Amino acid sequence: MTQHSASPAVMRSKLGQARGLGSAKAGFHHWWGQKLTSFALLPLSLWFVTACIRQIGHTRAEVAHWVANPLVATLFVLLLAATFQHLALGVEAVIVDYVREEKRKLASILIVKAACLLLALIGIISVLKLAVTG
User: Fold this and answer.
1) Tens digits of per-residue pLDDT, 69-127?
2) What does pTM read for this prediction?
3) Residue (of 68, 85, 39) closest to 129 by Cα position
4) Residue 45 needs a FRET pair 20 to 30 A away by CA distance; which of 37, 67, 85, 95 works?
5) Positive or negative, the Cα torsion across 17, 22, 25, 28?
6) What are phi and psi of 49, to 5 degrees?
7) Helix boundaries (H) for 22-69
8) Helices (H), 12-27
9) Assigned CATH topology for domain 26-133
């Protein structure tokens, strides 16, 4: 009588083969972060669009004076922070899903996070500078 040895993968069900794959354990914070930032971006984006429309025809000095209002400056900073956080999380999810090589994946994620942080800081500093000089 000969023994037939099957590989463990053949003997496992499809669910058993899939366990441990994917982002079921590590993806929750990305999902939650994107939900929170998208929820914050809805009213902030509506405010931004209506605020920009209202500023049409105003001089730079008038706009700077408007941005100097602490509530307006705070809303701008929140908009920038939420936008770039949402962007970083979204692009990171795409990189994790489509980039297979670990070194390239890590490098890409670090570059995206650094670029988003830099751009957010530039935007926030610009708003604060305009608010202070306005």
Assistant:
1) 999 999 999 999 999 999 999 999 999 999 999 999 999 999 999 999 999 999 999 99
2) 0.78
3) 68
4) 95
5) negative
6) -65, -45
7) 28-54, 60-67
8) 14-18
9) 3 helical TM bundles of succinate and fumarate reductases (1.20.1300)
Query: What sign results for the dihedral spanned by CA atoms 87, 89, 92, 94?
Result: negative
Structure tokens at 12: 């496992």
Question: What's the rounded Cα separation, in Å, for the pair 108 and 75?
Answer: 30
Residues 64-75: b if buried by 16+ CB within 10 A, e if exposed? bebbeeeebbeb
pLDDT digits (tens, 9 = 90+) for 24-77: 556 788 889 999 999 999 999 999 999 999 999 999 999 999 999 999 999 999
Domain ranges of the chain: 26-133
Q: How far apart are CA 81 and CA 96, in angstroms?
A: 22
CB 22, CB 30: distance < 8 Å: no
Task: Give the separation between CA 31 and CA 70, rounded to whole angstroms.
Answer: 31
Q: Which structure tokens are listed for 111? A: 């570059």
